[in-house]
Amino acid sequence: MQENTAKPGEVPKAAEGADAAARAHTQAVYAAEGAGTPPDWNAALGHLERAAALGHRLAQAELAALSGDWALSGRIAAGEPIEAAWGDLRRAVDVRAWVTPPRRLIVSAAPRIATVENIASPELCDWLIARAKPKLAPAEVYDHDTGKQRVEQVRTNSACYFQWDDSDLLLIALRTRMAAAAELPLQGLESTAVLHYRPGEEFLPHFDFLDTAKPGHAKDVAMRGQRVLTFLIALNEDYEGGQTDFPELGKAWKGRKGSGLFFWNVEPDGSVDGRTRHAGLPTIRGEKWLLSQWMRARPS
Fold this sequence. Notes:
This protein is of the alpha+beta class.
């Protein structure tokens, strides 16, 4: 065992290295998404490489996955000690392939709805589920009057929201893809949610736009803009039931693993579109995993 030679009041070198690794990873996240500045993936990968070299396990798994070596990423995530050439992995990352969305298919002009096949690889879907599982909590809904969140029986599933401090570059690449597919600014995306439905759990019919006739919603829209678009990605498909249902349209969606659906919650003139009322139907067998992304009219 290595002796701790730190003097009283000094930070041990191991802790100092861990702090530096965590800072480097945070810098990678900020650089990739752009925190007040345009996204800079070259800088982001530089920070990620440094974090990986300093022993940051998540950064190491990210870098391996971004390079296309999902097997190595899995070994790292499983806790296996790895000595890798982090610089080589960084140079193998194809940023353009990660952030460019597949072609979208318009399935409805009014309301505006589109699908995007294979927007997330099966491995990325599994990555998001694994990262979300330890952080699941009862899903909440907006309080009409206060604008705050609360648990209600209209929504019985669980959810994990990825904030800045627990995000990663794989998720940011996917957020970039979604924003590009929807032709909306990346900085207008709210926190990404991964939703989990056990058998029988559901989200009753609701709207995703904010009703400015309600005080809490009006305050939120004045501060951050209207929630104009919802993007959904199926993270698995081995379950029965659980479709996303659109009652006014008489249609329902259950995507294949990695496929996406997005719909505008507002008309082209900005007025809310009541035809977008939708529900997460209860699953009958198996567990459903779904990514949900709300997008604002202006950066939030």
